[in-house]
TrEMBL record:
PANTHER family: PATATIN (PTHR32176:SF60), XYLOSE ISOMERASE (PTHR32176)
UniProt motif (GXGXXG) ranges: 51-56
Protein name: Patatin
Domain PNPLA: start-end pairs: 47-250
UniProtKB keywords: Hydrolase, Lipid degradation, Lipid metabolism, Plant defense
Organism for this UniProt entry: Brachypodium distachyon (Purple false brome)
E.C. designation(s): 3.1.1.-
Gene Ontology terms for molecular function: monoacylglycerol lipase activity; phospholipase activity
Length: 425
């Protein structure tokens, strides 16, 4: 396969080029100090990004808006990773997580948030090329992954180079699933710092968490234990474990508190009222109502795996896990009377190609950008615990207004921490 060409990115401070050592970028920007750990502040800040293939453009649009507002408050060099203590991502969300937290040669984030969508627009047509026409396309899907993953693997390896999980600029949480052991395998910066066998290449983690069954091949790689013996990983898509990684991120923080990690002292394990959580979905097609019990009762294995251009089995378990996590988090924050510290932004009304994870035509990718922009103008919704549907929250404004409030809170928290640590801003 020929070498992958990665176009230059513009982060708002001049042209950027790939750094062959870190897989990062060279920048002429002034360095901006990252926020000190939560022990210097009052809240723990968490960002979570769902899986969803090309629909990663939707949270990419939301993050670009949030970073723009942070830059209006704190200056043009502000980046998402400067404000969140934990960034979690599944599948396509794991790739976005890496883009936001992998360091360039200056120790700054590899991508500005506004560059994420450009990456998707440039590379998704090659990651998910148009499938062969009937019957060859269907036959290929039935006998192996729909895509060979070669382009995705090449671009991810070129971007991230030798960067390891422990080198992420903030704590990251990326779920995968070990198909050999039949159990989730969660990669986080804290685990990588304490267990060398979990300090995998960030590129291997991104490839693994994106290996959606029937779409992309599973990924095998090795690391080494402290004594030098090998550790094997046989991984597939993190969406099998947690398509919405919000609770994984909160659990990771709770684990560190229980372990006595000084980054979180004096926060207590049950002090969820001190969390500020932004959870970004990638959309779903609930309103379409494509299938029903009568139809599904007639399906065999093939019907569940591929039906009318959809993958009912995969769509069902990924959407179920995402919704359950949203319900759990929403109820938890409501019970603690801290509901305004939890913001879930999700569109349940996708239709046609926009609900697909792999339709990467220029028209559909542009439509997904439009979905994200329209979502900003919508009212904040919360989950109805009885129906599972999203309903407008009458006590809150639009997603755009809430994100602006979040930007102010994030900025205030970061400034307070920097001041307490004696770092000049």
């Amino acid at each position: 396969m020929s070498p992958v060409h990665v176009p230059e990115h513009n982060s708002g401070s001049g042209s950027l080029t790939l750094n062959p050592v870190l897989g990062g970028v060279a920048s002429s920007s002034l360095l901006t100090p990252r926020s000190p750990p939560p022990s210097y502040g009052n809240i723990v800040t968490v960002l979570s990004i769902d899986g969803g293939g090309v629909r990663g453009i939707i949270p990419g649009t939301i993050l670009a808006f949030l970073e723009e507002k942070l830059q209006e408050i704190d200056g043009p060099e502000a980046r998402i990773a400067d404000y969140f203590d934990v960034i979690a991502g599944t599948s396509t969300g794991g790739l976005v997580t890496a883009m936001l937290t992998a360091p360039n040669k200056d120790g700054r984030p590899l991508f500005a948030a506004k560059d994420i969508n450009k990456f998707y627009l440039d590379h998704c047509p090659k990651i998910f090329p148009a499938a062969s026409s009937w019957p060859f396309g269907l036959w290929k899907t039935m006998t192996g992954p729909k895509y060979d993953g070669q382009y995705l693997h090449s671009i991810v390896k070129e971007l991230l180079g030798g960067t390891r999980v422990s080198q992420a600029l903030q704590n990251i949480v990326v779920p995968t699933f070990d198909i050999k052991l039949l159990q989730p395998t969660i990669f986080s910066k804290y685990d990588a710092q304490n267990d060398v066998s979990k300090d995998a290449l960030l590129s291997d983690v991104c490839i693994s968490t994106s290996a959606a069954p029937t779409y992309l091949p599973g990924h095998h790689f090795q690391t080494k234990h402290k004594d030098g013996t090998p550790r094997d990983f046989d991984l597939i898509d993190g969406g099998v474990a947690a398509n919405n990684p919000t609770m994984l991120a909160i659990t990771d923080v709770s684990k560190q508190i229980l372990l006595g990690n000084r980054d979180y002292f004096p926060i207590k394990p049950a002090d969820y009222g001190k969390f500020l959580v932004l959870s970004l979905g990638t959309g779903s097609a609930k309103v379409e109502g494509k299938f029903d019990a009568a139809a599904s009762s007639k399906w065999g294995v093939l019907g569940w795996l591929y039906n009318s251009g959809a993958t009912p089995l995969i769509d069902s378990f990924s959407q179920a896990s995402a919704d359950l996590v949203d319900i759990q988090a929403s109820v938890l924050f409501q019970a603690l009377r801290s509901e305004k510290r939890y913001l879930r932004i999700q569109d349940d009304e996708l239709k046609g190609d926009t609900s697909s994870v792999d339709v990467s035509t220029p028209d559909n990718l542009r439509r997904l950008v439009g979905v994200g922009e329209a979502l900003l103008k919508r009212s904040v919704c919360r989950v109805d615990v009885e129906t599972g549907k999203s309903v407008p929250d009458k006590n809150r404004g639009t997603n755009e207004e809430e994100l602006l409030n979040f930007a102010r809170l994030l900025s205030q928290e970061r400034k307070a921490r920097l001041q307490k640590k004696g770092i000049k801003q």
